[in-house]
Amino acid sequence: MPGTLSPDSAVSAPAPTPPSAPSGSVRRRAVLALVGVILVGLNLRIGITSASALFHELQHALGYGAFIASLLPTIPTLCFAVAGLAANALIRRLGVENTLVLALVLLSGGLALRGIPSTAALLVGTVIAMSGLAICNISMPVLVRQDHAHRTSFVTGMYTVMMTVGSTSAATFSVPLGHALGSPSAGLAAWSGAAIVGLLGLVPLALSSRGIRASIPGGGAPAERHGVLASLKSRKAVLITIVFSAQGFLAYAAMSWFAYILSDSGMDAAQSGVIFGISQFVSLFAGMFFLTLGSRNGARPWALAIPAASMALGMLLLLVAPVGTALISAVLLGLGLGVFPPILAIISQSGSTAAETTALSTAAQSIGYLFSALGPLSIGLLHGLTGSWVLPLSVAVVVSLLLLATGFRLGTIHRGHGPRVVIASHEAKRESPLHDGGKQD
């Protein structure tokens, strides 16, 4: 794939190779890691878009006011910012596989708790589930870097495809599911089944990592430490954080309020859920397209700028004629959401070791999601204060323009895989949590 590091371009390390795990174990681990990527990716947005599609009905059923209505869509990003800070230490202590198992336990339990028809259960369950997702968000680029360093774009594309499949399914079917089960709360809790499947699928990977650790001398040694704040000293790292922050602001504002705006403008709740699902469906193909486009150095700036421009146009149409141009807005917003895979690929390709990638991922995503929390919160509060969607959507357009400018700049300075890493088959374990990550040659 263009823009990825092939075995032919890898540089051999001059130093002797440390003792490695058996090659069969490494291959088995790579397969299990790929399964883990698919299953975790499927769950990355289900807990968010399932609730977004049901917010209108949940408010009527549970009777909470405007403050809770604005707080609920903000909880995911706040959890991503705060709980995500723990991911760096957890990965260092437990390894990325066991960290992901813990994250999916939290996700499964939190989603199930939301099935209790009360505002308190909805809030507490959302906090628990989104804390699990926060850890997944930080861990995924690390898992990709560790086990698939030579094909980060392909594997990142695979798990973002699964993420979009999950989010589209949840957005489209949550309302009918809630009707079939008799309450919107039950419709939310039903999605815990997908998280349980993901948890069961990750257990073999976690067990496999213990076996490999036991077969390698020094495999139980603590992983390399790399400061989270130290990872933000470069201009590129700052740009990554700004771009991630801006895209998160827009993505969560859109995921939280798009269907609500349509319903508030007179569209039937089920129909608005379908339109919302279309935006998620479009983002599936948009993400793959922009990821492929961004794998070429010369086109990478446009892979970040085009979705930003699409998001701005979609917000403008939603402002001018929300119902009349709903389908066009959905397509444009879906194209805008396609900026997520390229920025994830850039994170996975940055840093000279797995520890540096972990630190950068933690810093960029924690700070980014803290800013992202302002998206759904500010949209909701500004609408509540003004009684109109004009000011909230105008703010979204301004943030889209910020994303356009910074994304284009980031695309011009990021080149390919960044540091060249050793990826010879007998050294594949260098990118596993059992060692300190691949060394820069």
Automatic annotation (TrEMBL):
InterPro entries (UniProt xref): MFS, MFS_Cyanate_Porter, MFS_trans_sf
Keyword terms, alphabetized: Membrane, Transmembrane, Transmembrane helix
Bilayer-spanning residue ranges: 30-55, 61-87, 99-116, 122-144, 156-176, 188-207, 237-262, 274-294, 301-321, 327-347, 359-383, 389-410
Biased composition (Low complexity): 1-14
Domain of life: Bacteria
Segments for region (Disordered): 1-24
Protein name: MFS transporter
Organism the protein comes from: Arthrobacter horti
